[in-house]
């Protein structure tokens, strides 16, 4: 299929069939979650088996949450990934440290709910290779991401950063076209919106999501 101008990341893959569906539909990135409280979390050995089947040209992303160096090393020693996604409260200094120590590009997730959250994006744009602009989790949420929650996309109107960025949070085949039009995003990330149950992707929803993105990009 012709590549879409808007690149798609499918996050939280746990099963070979889900990886295959993401790749076949044209995803540019696939994400593996290494955060045991999540229903999408995978052990490094299982993630390795998934990652080695991903064809060249599709970027493999390891998602961690406030992981220390030993935890990051345990993942990166076993799983061949192309990028780290830091989805916790990692400071800009910690982002810099992780980039230097592990030699991989880092995408920093930043949660938005209101305009006061926007300056954090500038701070991370100075140190990260990419930004993931996500919804801030609600108070008391068990997970810092993957909650299927959108934020007010109008917050991003007219905003640009010095790094590539990806829009995330509550996207689905039904709303991704409007999200792209409102924000100008050239990359989008989805997890819950292409699932039939947490940790179980749905190939029909994955295909519908990629089709909706291709339509808005055409
Ligand atoms: O997916 C998880 O379980 C998860 C756990 C801990 C931190 C982040 C997590 N997911 C992040 C994502 O899957 C995406 O990058 C993004 O937040 C979009 O998720 P969704 O709103 O479910 O589409």
Automatic annotation (TrEMBL):
This is N-(5'-phosphoribosyl)anthranilate isomerase. PANTHER family: N-(5'-PHOSPHORIBOSYL)ANTHRANILATE ISOMERASE (PTHR42894). It comes from Rhodosalinus halophilus. Belongs to the TrpF family. Residues 8-211 form the N-(5'phosphoribosyl) anthranilate isomerase (PRAI) domain. NCBIfam families: PRK01222.1-1. It comes from the Bacteria. The gene is trpF. One of its GO terms (biological process) is L-tryptophan biosynthetic process. The lineage of its organism: Bacteria, Pseudomonadati, Pseudomonadota, Alphaproteobacteria, Rhodobacterales. It is an enzyme of class 5 (isomerase). Its EC number is 5.3.1.24. Signal peptide: none annotated.
């Amino acid at each position: 299929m012709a590549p879409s101008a808007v690149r798609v990341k499918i996050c939280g893959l746990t099963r070979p069939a889900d990886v295959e569906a993401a790749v076949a539909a044209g995803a540019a990135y696939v994400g593996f979650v290494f955060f045991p409280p999540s229903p999408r979390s995978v052990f490094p050995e299982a993630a390795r088996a998934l990652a080695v089947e991903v064809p060249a040209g599709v970027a493999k992303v390891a998602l961690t949450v406030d992981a220390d160096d030993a935890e990051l090393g345990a993942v990166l020693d076993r799983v061949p990934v192309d990028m780290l996604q830091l989805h916790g409260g990692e400071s800009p200094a910690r982002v810099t440290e992780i980039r230097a120590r592990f030699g991989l590009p880092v995408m920093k997730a930043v949660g938005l709910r209101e305009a006061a959250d926007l300056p954090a994006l500038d701070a991370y744009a100075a140190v990260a290779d990419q930004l993931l602009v996500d919804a801030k989790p609600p108070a008391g949420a068990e997970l810092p991401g993957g909650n299927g929650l959108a934020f007010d996309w109008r917050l991003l109107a007219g905003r640009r950063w010095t790094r590539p960025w990806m829009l995330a949070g509550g996207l689905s085949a039904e709303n991704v076209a409007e999200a792209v039009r409102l924000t100008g995003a050239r990359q989008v990330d989805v997890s819950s919106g292409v699932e039939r149950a947490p940790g179980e992707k749905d190939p029909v929803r994955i295909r519908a999501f990629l089709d909706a993105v291709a339509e808005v990009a055409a």
